[in-house]
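Morning run. Coffee first, then this:
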Amino acid sequence: MENGKLRKKIEKLAYGSGASLFGVADIRGLKKEFHFSDEILTHFDYAISIGLRLSDAILEEIKGIPTRLYYYHYRQVNASLDQLALKLAGFLQSEGYSALPVPASQIVDWEKQEGHVSHKRIGELAGLGFIGRNNLLVNPELGARFRLVTVLTDASMDLDRPLGIDCGECRVCIDACPAGAIKENFREFEHVACYKKLKEFKDKSMVSQFICGVCVKACRGKICKKIQ
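And here it is:
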Protein backbone atom coordinates (compact mmCIF):
# COMPACT_ATOMS: atom_id res chain seq x y z
CA MET A 1 0.00 0.00 0.00
CA GLU A 2 1.24 3.50 -0.80
CA ASN A 3 2.88 5.22 2.20
CA GLY A 4 0.47 8.13 2.51
CA LYS A 5 -2.61 5.97 2.07
CA LEU A 6 -1.47 3.45 4.68
CA ARG A 7 -0.75 6.18 7.18
CA LYS A 8 -4.16 7.79 6.67
CA LYS A 9 -5.89 4.47 7.32
CA ILE A 10 -3.95 3.78 10.51
CA GLU A 11 -4.31 7.35 11.74
CA LYS A 12 -8.06 7.24 11.16
CA LEU A 13 -8.26 3.95 13.06
CA ALA A 14 -6.25 5.38 15.96
CA TYR A 15 -8.25 8.58 16.35
CA GLY A 16 -11.49 6.70 15.81
CA SER A 17 -10.50 4.42 18.71
CA GLY A 18 -9.92 7.31 21.10
CA ALA A 19 -6.31 8.40 20.53
CA SER A 20 -5.46 11.99 21.37
CA LEU A 21 -2.06 12.08 19.61
CA PHE A 22 -0.61 10.15 16.66
CA GLY A 23 2.78 10.19 14.95
CA VAL A 24 5.20 7.98 13.02
CA ALA A 25 8.98 7.86 13.50
CA ASP A 26 12.03 6.29 11.91
CA ILE A 27 13.66 4.41 14.82
CA ARG A 28 16.75 2.96 13.15
CA GLY A 29 18.97 5.26 15.21
CA LEU A 30 17.29 4.27 18.48
CA LYS A 31 17.18 0.48 18.31
CA LYS A 32 20.46 0.00 20.16
CA GLU A 33 18.74 1.50 23.23
CA PHE A 34 15.82 -0.96 23.20
CA HIS A 35 15.53 -3.92 25.57
CA PHE A 36 14.69 -6.48 22.91
CA SER A 37 16.82 -9.09 21.19
CA ASP A 38 18.51 -8.02 17.96
CA GLU A 39 16.61 -10.80 16.22
CA ILE A 40 13.25 -9.30 17.13
CA LEU A 41 14.27 -5.82 16.07
CA THR A 42 15.81 -6.74 12.71
CA HIS A 43 12.88 -5.70 10.53
CA PHE A 44 11.29 -3.03 12.71
CA ASP A 45 12.63 0.27 11.39
CA TYR A 46 9.53 2.36 12.13
CA ALA A 47 7.31 3.08 15.09
CA ILE A 48 3.81 4.43 15.56
CA SER A 49 3.48 6.58 18.68
CA ILE A 50 0.03 7.08 20.17
CA GLY A 51 -0.94 9.34 23.05
CA LEU A 52 -4.06 9.25 25.21
CA ARG A 53 -4.99 12.31 27.24
CA LEU A 54 -5.33 12.03 31.01
CA SER A 55 -8.30 13.45 32.89
CA ASP A 56 -7.69 17.02 34.03
CA ALA A 57 -10.25 16.60 36.80
CA ILE A 58 -8.44 13.59 38.25
CA LEU A 59 -5.04 15.28 38.01
CA GLU A 60 -6.35 18.35 39.82
CA GLU A 61 -7.06 16.17 42.87
CA ILE A 62 -3.32 15.52 43.29
CA LYS A 63 -2.00 17.75 46.09
CA GLY A 64 1.69 16.92 46.38
CA ILE A 65 1.11 13.16 46.65
CA PRO A 66 -0.56 10.63 44.31
CA THR A 67 -4.20 9.73 44.90
CA ARG A 68 -5.85 6.35 44.58
CA LEU A 69 -8.17 7.84 42.01
CA TYR A 70 -5.14 8.76 39.88
CA TYR A 71 -3.71 5.27 40.39
CA TYR A 72 -6.84 3.61 39.00
CA HIS A 73 -7.07 6.15 36.18
CA TYR A 74 -3.41 5.56 35.31
CA ARG A 75 -4.02 1.82 35.08
CA GLN A 76 -7.13 2.20 32.93
CA VAL A 77 -5.44 4.61 30.52
CA ASN A 78 -2.53 2.19 30.13
CA ALA A 79 -4.96 -0.67 29.50
CA SER A 80 -6.78 1.40 26.88
CA LEU A 81 -3.48 2.23 25.18
CA ASP A 82 -2.50 -1.43 25.13
CA GLN A 83 -5.82 -2.33 23.50
CA LEU A 84 -5.34 0.42 20.95
CA ALA A 85 -1.83 -0.80 20.15
CA LEU A 86 -3.16 -4.34 19.68
CA LYS A 87 -5.81 -3.04 17.31
CA LEU A 88 -3.32 -1.13 15.18
CA ALA A 89 -0.88 -4.05 15.16
CA GLY A 90 -3.70 -6.36 14.08
CA PHE A 91 -4.62 -4.04 11.23
CA LEU A 92 -1.01 -3.87 10.03
CA GLN A 93 -0.75 -7.65 10.09
CA SER A 94 -3.97 -7.95 8.09
CA GLU A 95 -2.34 -5.73 5.46
CA GLY A 96 0.69 -8.03 5.25
CA TYR A 97 3.10 -6.13 7.52
CA SER A 98 4.80 -7.14 10.74
CA ALA A 99 3.97 -5.25 13.94
CA LEU A 100 4.90 -5.47 17.61
CA PRO A 101 2.74 -3.66 20.18
CA VAL A 102 4.92 -2.54 23.11
CA PRO A 103 3.08 -2.34 26.47
CA ALA A 104 2.39 1.18 27.68
CA SER A 105 3.77 0.69 31.18
CA GLN A 106 5.90 -2.44 31.44
CA ILE A 107 9.09 -1.49 33.28
CA VAL A 108 12.23 -3.61 33.02
CA ASP A 109 14.39 -1.40 35.30
CA TRP A 110 12.57 0.66 37.96
CA GLU A 111 15.58 2.56 39.25
CA LYS A 112 16.40 3.79 35.75
CA GLN A 113 12.68 3.89 34.90
CA GLU A 114 13.24 2.08 31.62
CA GLY A 115 10.86 -0.10 29.64
CA HIS A 116 11.43 -2.27 26.58
CA VAL A 117 11.53 0.94 24.56
CA SER A 118 11.49 4.62 25.46
CA HIS A 119 7.96 5.65 24.51
CA LYS A 120 8.88 9.28 25.10
CA ARG A 121 11.95 9.20 22.82
CA ILE A 122 9.88 7.61 20.09
CA GLY A 123 7.12 10.15 20.69
CA GLU A 124 9.69 12.92 20.39
CA LEU A 125 10.89 11.61 17.01
CA ALA A 126 7.26 11.22 15.94
CA GLY A 127 6.58 14.92 16.59
CA LEU A 128 4.26 14.47 19.57
CA GLY A 129 6.33 16.62 21.89
CA PHE A 130 9.76 17.29 23.37
CA ILE A 131 11.60 16.04 26.47
CA GLY A 132 10.89 18.59 29.18
CA ARG A 133 12.71 19.45 32.37
CA ASN A 134 10.47 16.90 34.08
CA ASN A 135 12.07 14.17 31.93
CA LEU A 136 8.66 13.51 30.38
CA LEU A 137 7.41 14.02 26.85
CA VAL A 138 5.71 17.43 26.78
CA ASN A 139 3.15 18.28 24.13
CA PRO A 140 2.62 22.01 23.34
CA GLU A 141 -1.13 21.72 23.93
CA LEU A 142 -1.47 18.95 26.53
CA GLY A 143 1.71 19.47 28.50
CA ALA A 144 2.67 16.14 30.10
CA ARG A 145 -0.96 15.22 30.73
CA PHE A 146 -1.06 12.13 28.54
CA ARG A 147 0.24 8.57 28.37
CA LEU A 148 1.97 6.85 25.46
CA VAL A 149 2.14 3.50 23.71
CA THR A 150 4.22 2.31 20.76
CA VAL A 151 3.76 -0.08 17.86
CA LEU A 152 6.95 -1.19 16.11
CA THR A 153 6.52 -2.11 12.46
CA ASP A 154 8.23 -2.77 9.14
CA ALA A 155 5.57 -0.73 7.33
CA SER A 156 7.04 2.34 5.66
CA MET A 157 4.78 5.38 6.09
CA ASP A 158 5.00 9.15 5.82
CA LEU A 159 7.11 10.22 8.80
CA ASP A 160 6.84 13.03 11.33
CA ARG A 161 9.67 15.22 12.64
CA PRO A 162 10.72 16.49 16.08
CA LEU A 163 9.03 19.76 16.99
CA GLY A 164 12.18 21.75 17.76
CA ILE A 165 10.78 23.47 20.87
CA ASP A 166 11.50 23.31 24.59
CA CYS A 167 10.12 24.40 27.98
CA GLY A 168 11.12 28.02 27.51
CA GLU A 169 10.89 29.93 30.78
CA CYS A 170 8.56 27.43 32.45
CA ARG A 171 9.90 25.84 35.63
CA VAL A 172 6.72 24.88 37.48
CA CYS A 173 7.68 21.21 37.59
CA ILE A 174 10.94 22.00 39.42
CA ASP A 175 9.03 23.65 42.26
CA ALA A 176 6.34 20.96 42.30
CA CYS A 177 8.54 17.84 42.41
CA PRO A 178 8.31 16.27 45.91
CA ALA A 179 11.62 14.45 45.36
CA GLY A 180 13.64 17.44 44.15
CA ALA A 181 14.60 15.27 41.17
CA ILE A 182 13.89 17.84 38.43
CA LYS A 183 16.70 20.16 37.37
CA GLU A 184 17.20 22.90 34.79
CA ASN A 185 18.34 20.37 32.18
CA PHE A 186 16.39 17.15 31.71
CA ARG A 187 19.68 15.30 31.28
CA GLU A 188 20.40 16.02 34.95
CA PHE A 189 17.13 14.46 36.13
CA GLU A 190 17.79 12.46 39.31
CA HIS A 191 16.25 9.06 38.57
CA VAL A 192 17.29 7.56 41.91
CA ALA A 193 15.70 10.40 43.91
CA CYS A 194 12.50 10.01 41.89
CA TYR A 195 12.51 6.24 42.40
CA LYS A 196 12.97 6.60 46.16
CA LYS A 197 10.00 8.93 46.36
CA LEU A 198 7.86 6.55 44.29
CA LYS A 199 8.86 3.72 46.61
CA GLU A 200 7.97 5.85 49.63
CA PHE A 201 4.49 6.52 48.23
CA LYS A 202 4.02 2.80 47.59
CA ASP A 203 5.42 1.70 50.98
CA LYS A 204 3.03 4.08 52.74
CA SER A 205 0.16 2.42 50.82
CA MET A 206 -0.86 5.65 49.15
CA VAL A 207 -0.90 3.74 45.85
CA SER A 208 -0.13 0.17 44.82
CA GLN A 209 2.38 1.00 42.10
CA PHE A 210 5.45 3.20 41.64
CA ILE A 211 3.62 6.31 40.42
CA CYS A 212 3.38 9.94 41.48
CA GLY A 213 1.65 12.29 39.01
CA VAL A 214 2.71 15.54 40.69
CA CYS A 215 4.88 16.80 37.83
CA VAL A 216 2.33 15.51 35.31
CA LYS A 217 -0.29 17.70 36.94
CA ALA A 218 2.06 20.70 37.01
CA CYS A 219 2.94 20.53 33.30
CA ARG A 220 0.15 22.09 31.24
CA GLY A 221 2.03 23.08 28.05
CA LYS A 222 1.05 26.16 26.03
CA ILE A 223 4.14 28.13 27.15
CA CYS A 224 6.83 26.32 25.20
CA LYS A 225 9.24 28.15 22.88
CA LYS A 226 10.98 27.49 19.59
CA ILE A 227 14.57 26.42 20.01
CA GLN A 228 16.89 29.05 18.53
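Helices lie at 3-16, 38-41, 56-59, 68-94, 119-125, 172-176, 191-203, 214-218. Good start to the day.
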